[in-house]
Structure formats: structure tokens, C-alpha cells
Amino acid sequence: MNTTKNKKLTPAEELEYLKEICSGDYEKMAHWITNAYDVLQQRSSLLLSLVAVVLTITGFSGPNIAASGRFSKLCIVYGLSFVLVSAVLTLAGPLRLRWSTQWRSETTDQSFINLIRRRNARTAKYHLAFILLSIGLLGYVGSFIGFLFRRG
Known about the structure:
Elements (H helix, E strand, L loop, with lengths): L10 H11 L4 H42 L2 H23 L15 H44 L1
Helix pairs in contact: 1-4, 2-3, 2-4, 3-4
């Protein structure tokens, strides 16, 4: 029976784990790490797609929803504010273009550790952008609910 508990690894520990998984093959390790950046890119693009949908719908229906009452107006402003902050954070964080070969440390291991640190920082920004987008969508839905109650 394995008594090892799951734990979140530090970047240095993660590098050691990658060495174990990839049998010390730096090419495989580089692929593993850069694949994580690809996943962040794809998921961040999805967030921006949701932002685009919200902005498009708001462009068509926003004035009517906001005109339906104070509650709807406040909710749509609140919602759109969070959605836009989420978009900016996504663009400035996970989608910020930096090449992995641009950064070199004293050793290859240290370079990998720094790539893992940057990936973790971008992941944290992605999570925050997701939370902000979710809060913004709640505000936007609230404005629509207010609109429906006012119209109904």
C-alpha cells in the first residue's frame, strides 16, 4: 500500500518529478512543459471567446436591458466591468507572448524551473481571469433577469 500523500510540488520538485517521468530526457521534459503552455493558450482563448459573446450581445441588447430599470443598469455595468477586467488580465497574463527559448538561466535545470514558475504564474492569472469572468457573467445575467421582470 502506497502511503505517499498527494501534494502540490514546488517548481524544483516538479522538475525532479519530470526527470523521473521522462527518464532525464530534456527534450521530452521540454515538450511536457511547453504542452502546458499550449493548454493555457487554448483555455485562455476560450475565455476571450466568451468575452466576445458577452460584448456582442451587449452591443445589440445592452441599451434595451439598461433602459428597463436601475437594477438592470447597475448589473450590466457591474457585469461588463468584470468581463472587461477578465479580458485584460487574460491578454496580459496567459496570452502574453514570450518564447520559452528567450530565457536562459545558469543551468538547464534552472531554466526549466523558471519555465515552470512562469507557467504557474500564468495559470494563476488564468484562474483569476476565470473567476472575474464568472462574476461578470453573474452580473450580466442579473441584468437580464431584471429586464425580464420589468418587461413581464
